[in-house]
Write a structure and sequence with these properties.
Radius of gyration of chain B: 26 Å
Largest sheet of chain A: 8 strands, mixed
Number of helices of chain A: 11
Oligomer: heterodimer
CATH architecture of the largest domain in chain B: 3-Layer(aba) Sandwich
Structural class of chain A: alpha/beta
Number of helices of chain B: 21
Number of strands of chain A: 12
Shape of chain B: globular
Strand order of the largest sheet of chain A: 2-1-3-4-6-5-11-7
Largest sheet of chain B: 7 strands, mixed
CATH architecture of the largest domain in chain A: 3-Layer(aba) Sandwich
CATH topology of the largest domain in chain A: Rossmann fold
Distance between the termini of chain A: 69 Å
CATH class of the largest domain in chain A: Alpha Beta
Order of helices and strands of chain A: HEEHEHHEHEHEHHEEEEHEHHE
Shape of chain A: globular
Strand content of chain A: 15-25%
Helix content of chain B: 25-40%
CATH class of the largest domain in chain B: Alpha Beta
Number of domains of chain B: 3
CATH superfamily of the largest domain in chain A: Thiamin diphosphate (ThDP)-binding fold, Pyr/PP domains
């Protein structure tokens, strides 16, 4: 990255951070500030837009232009900012409640429209700010304050929803992985279109340890697979496990067993238009004997909403006889009274 | 017959093309120097069951010397089928002329309309009925065009238009030109419509369709270039004009809803002026994208109707607390809930004034004629940009779809708009630092170096804009927001009085009732009655001289198309006076006749 103009400190606001001690949001804040310092934008060209929830307090801690919106509406607020001024680098900060429950409609449509936004979806599988009710990503049967006997709802997998909405960019990261998250965010910003980055984030108060199986020292190497475009899908403590296709399904194999060599392992292609393998990667779960996929899972080029709009304006302008309001007012059927 | 003014209504099935027929006639009338006012009346269903009363679509137009409304009762009714006759007979003047398409007056169609053939016999006694086999004559006239029977029948509305042109001594030129342009790529269709038009004209001449009217053109119309204008187009153009005047890009976030959709449609056409439209996934998305665009430095607006305004309430509060410029256009319709989507009402006044959580003051203004929707959309934008506030503009279904000739303004004659964007390089930017006199904050636009700041829905610290829960600060900011809106009375124009200023009775209206009230008052003044009329376009805050005007009169009558919301608002703000109410809740405007009766009753009741 060429930018040496800024350090992450330039993006810190003077406001005291009020997230709970140990909250995963703090690490994500650091990753965002580092990514912004690394990218080529001027500081005044960043706009950080949020909805409501713990994560949505984010703009106040950034020394950039920021807008803390209303519940569920971060997606439309950010879409409006970006469409009005496509030169800005617009970052939408949202959570599993904000984006997938009250804002679910806006979420699928901003992805479908492919507005060039960086959409950071902090997924802690709980409502934190209202003190511990289940969210659309809470696990089936999860006991929370509003589900004392366990939820009876199937959760969303955000990535699956993104692909269902014809999403072109989906990545997954972990709050504690600041370096990896920073890299992913840089890629998300450079990708033109709606870039959704799901960040699994631990709520220390209401859902502590939600991702412990994935993140604990003992199991993390076997339970995480970090995907990189063009690299084989290898994971595990010994770096000897990999993914292969078995019919239409993915399968975990061990290199050196059953005649499997490194060459048999699938190579990640984030640019493949057909979403079927991306979907299979997104849906891998520990319960089914798979590691959880991280990194940029899908990144496919497509025209963006705001650029198509600007292009249309240029095309119509070039052809139309109406160039100003006076032209419009006097256009069509008129008559003179003398 | 020489007359000063005439009212015509075209009525038929919603697929009969009555709106087009009416529009053609009114355009021609306007071109010939008449004052014109029109009002379409159509069902909510796109194609309601054919031949039924529920499916009747009407277009009423009023033209002549001085015309301020689309008229109460018609001199001529064109009824394309029994249902159209049944639905509209009560609106025909005694002795008026009714043109019917006898081909459609079959037993089957009488059944569909739910009335018997005797109905027809009844009307012969009270009205001048012209019976014409319109459908068969149209087909005959078009026999050599090579069109199929169904396509030929489709031109029957043009046959009737030709007849009406003949009765009113109008030329066909304008409509012929219209068809040539509209069907430039389908010359066969253009020719068929022109043929049908001429055939209708010749037929009326041959049968000596009586009476024939000579309508006096208007002699009070000011010199200049004119066009026909409806309220929704005027609103869209007013917003676009404001953006050009303020030298800002224009953004409209919206969601289709009757009767406001045409505002979105008209702006969407204007890519040539750089206008951006964002058809959102819902009403909330419509307004919130606009708030985002406003934050990013555009002139932003959203357009909707009653139920949509309800969905936007929370977001309007966000625009209030962030003090961003935004125009919210509410084209009112009958409510509550889905109510009467295609019918008019003034019942969203309280929603506009108070329909939000918290202390959430919003300036409210209302247009009063189809064409002055342009002026008030421009004005709403000017207030929003110069005072950093969301502004609610009220129009309604009557204004939205009604048309009238409009003297085309020149952009150079419109007032300047000085928005509050802080130019780059002017030192420190404090988002909530205010102008001492107006209490207006400055607009720091993303992309401007050094003005980085955060806004949002949480209460903000005075000056810095940091989140603040300090009790005294919340009270201070609440009062600032309130005071800022109240101070608009300093810039709003004063309330004027029309009619006999020295009368005892002051008739009070607001918004779209202007045309009917002004006609009623003018006619009564002519008849020797003393009545005065004050009409409000500026509603929150009320004009500065309101109390002074009200104090001059003994009696105050508030007329509105709701159960008395504005009367209640006046009672709250100016409690000294006793307000009498005249209300109507039929999805229809007042008639001049009923207004005059009510005014007379009050004057006689001493």
């Amino acid at each position: 990255m060429g930018n040496t103009k800024y350090t992450f400190k330039d993006f810190k606001s003077d406001q005291e951070i009020r997230w709970c001690p140990g909250c995963g949001d703090t690490a994500i804040l650091m990753a965002v500030q580092k990514a912004m310092a690394e990218l080529d934008h001027e500081k005044e060209d960043y706009a950080v837009i949020s909805g409501i929830g713990c994560s949505s307090r984010f703009p106040y801690y950034m020394n950039t232009y920021g807008f803390h919106g209303i519940h569920g509406r971060a997606g439309v607020l950010a879409s409006g900012v970006k469409t009005a001024n496509p030169k800005l680098s617009v970052w939408q900060i949202t959570g599993d409640g904000d984006a997938l429950a009250i804002g679910g409609n806006h979420f699928i449509h901003e992805v479908r429209r492919n507005v060039n936004l960086n959409i950071l979806l902090f997924n802690n599988r709980i409502y934190g700010l209202t003190k511990g009710q289940y969210s659309p990503t809470s696990l089936f049967g999860q006991v929370t304050k509003s589900s004392p006997y366990g939820t009876i709802e199937e959760p969303f997998n955000p990535g699956e929803l993104v692909l269902g909405a014809k999403g072109k960019f989906f990545a997954r990261s972990l709050d504690v992985k600041v370096k990896e998250t920073t890299e992913i965010l840089v890629q998300a910003d450079k990708h033109e279109g709606a870039s959704v980055v799901e960040i699994l984030q631990n709520c220390v108060i209401y859902n502590n340890g939600a991702f412990a199986d994935i993140t604990s020292k003992e199991t993390r190497d076997d339970n995480q697979i970090w995907l990189e475009h063009g690299k084989p899908m290898i994971f595990g403590k010994e770096k000897n496990k990999g993914l292969v296709l078995d019919g239409f399904s993915l399968k975990v194999v061990t290199i050196g067993e059953d005649g499997i060599t490194k060459d048999d392992i699938l190579v990640h292609d984030a640019h493949e238009k057909n979403p079927y393998l991306h979907l299979a990667l997104i849906n891998m779960s520990l319960a089914d004997g798979f590691p959880v996929a991280f990194g940029v899972i899908r990144q496919v080029e497509a025209p963006t909403y705001e650029k198509l709009l600007e292009k249309q304006i240029e095309e119509v302008k070039a052809k139309s006889k109406i160039t100003c309001m006076d032209d419009l007012l006097n256009s069509g059927s008129t008559w003179v009274v003398e | 017959m020489e007359v000063d003014e005439v009212v015509i209504k075209f009525a038929g099935d919603s697929g009969d093309g009555m709106q087009l027929t009416g529009t053609q006639f009114s355009n021609t009338a306007a071109l010939l120097g008449d004052d014109v006012s029109t009002f379409p009346d159509y069902p909510a269903e796109i194609r309601a069951p054919q031949g039924t009363v529920g499916g009747v679509s009407g277009f009423q137009l009023h033209f002549g010397k001085i015309v301020d409304n689309p008229g109460d009762f018609c001199d001529v009714l064109v009824a394309m089928n029994p249902a159209a006759l049944k639905a509209n007979i009560r609106w025909v003047k005694d002795g008026g002329t009714i043109i019917i398409d006898t081909d459609s007056f079959t037993e089957k169609n009488f059944d569909k309309a739910g009335c018997s053939q005797d109905k027809l016999k009844e009307i012969y006694e009270d009205f001048n009925v012209i019976q014409a086999p319109v459908t068969s004559l149209t087909k005959e006239a078009l026999a050599d065009t090579g069109l199929d029977s169904k396509s030929m029948a489709r031109s029957k509305n043009m046959f009737t238009l030709g007849m009406v042109y003949c009765i009113f001594d109008r030329t066909l030129e304008h409509s012929e030109k219209f068809f040539d342009e509209k069907f430039a790529k389908k010359p066969k269709i253009a020719e068929a419509n022109k043929k049908a038009l001429r055939a209708g004209f010749n037929y009326a001449e041959t049968i000596h369709a009586m009476p024939s009217f000579r309508v006096h053109p208007s002699d009070t119309i000011a010199k200049g270039r004119y066009r026909n204008m409806n309220g929704n187009t005027a609103t869209a153009w007013g917003l676009l004009a404001a953006a050009e005047k303020a030298n800002l890009p224009f953004f409209l976030g919206s969601y289709p809803i009757t009767p406001a959709t045409e505002v979105l449609i008209e702006v969407a056409k204007r890519r040539d002026l750089g206008a951006k439209t964002f058809q959102a996934e819902d009403e909330i998305g419509g307004i919130v994208t606009s708030i985002g665009a406003s934050f990013a430095g555009n002139l932003a607006a959203t357009s909707t109707s009653g139920p949509g305004l309800a969905l936007k309430s929370e977001a309007i509060g966000l625009a209030v607390i962030t003090e961003l410029p935004l125009v919210i256009v509410n084209v009112q319709r009958g409510g509550p809930s889905t109510g009467l989507p295609t019918k008019t009402e003034q019942s969203d006044l309280f929603q506009a004034l108070y329909g939000r959580n918290g202390e959430s003051p919003v300036p409210v203004i209302a247009a009063s004629t189809p064409s002055n929707c342009f002026d008030y959309a421009f004005e709403a934008s000017k207030i929003a940009l110069e005072h950093m506030t969301p502004v609610l503009l009220l129009t309604d279904g009557f204004l939205a779809n009604g048309t009238e000739p409009w003297k085309i303004p020149a952009m150079k004659d419109l007032p300047e708009i000085k928005h509050k964007q802080k130019p780059a390089g002017e030192g420190e930017y404090l988002p909530y630092k205010r102008d001492e006199k107006t209490l207006v904050r400055e607009w720091g636009v993303p992309g401007t170096k050094g003005y980085e700041h955060r806004v949002g829905g949480l209460e903000k610290m005075n000056l810095t804009g940091n989140v603040s829960y300090v009790p005294e600060n919340h009270e201070l900011m609440t009062k600032y927001r309130d005071e800022k809106v109240k101070k608009l009375a300093d810039v709003y124009p004063e309330l004027k009085v029309e009619g006999n200023e020295d009368a005892d009775l002051l008739v009070i209206g607001w918004g779209s009732t202007y045309g009917h009230i002004t006609t009623a008052v003018r006619e009564l003044n002519k008849e020797g009655y003393k009545v005065a009329h004050a009409h409000f376009n500026y509603i929150n805050p009320l004009p500065k001289n309101t109390e002074e005007v009200l104090a001059k009169y003994k009696k105050h009558l508030v007329c509105e198309i709701n159960l008395g919301q504005f009367a209640g608002y006046l009672e709250m703000n100016h409690p000294k006076f006793d307000y009498q109410k005249f209300n109507k809740m039929q999805g229809l405007p007042f008639t001049v006749v009923e207004l005059k009766e009510k005014f007379k009753q009050l004057m006689e009741n001493k």
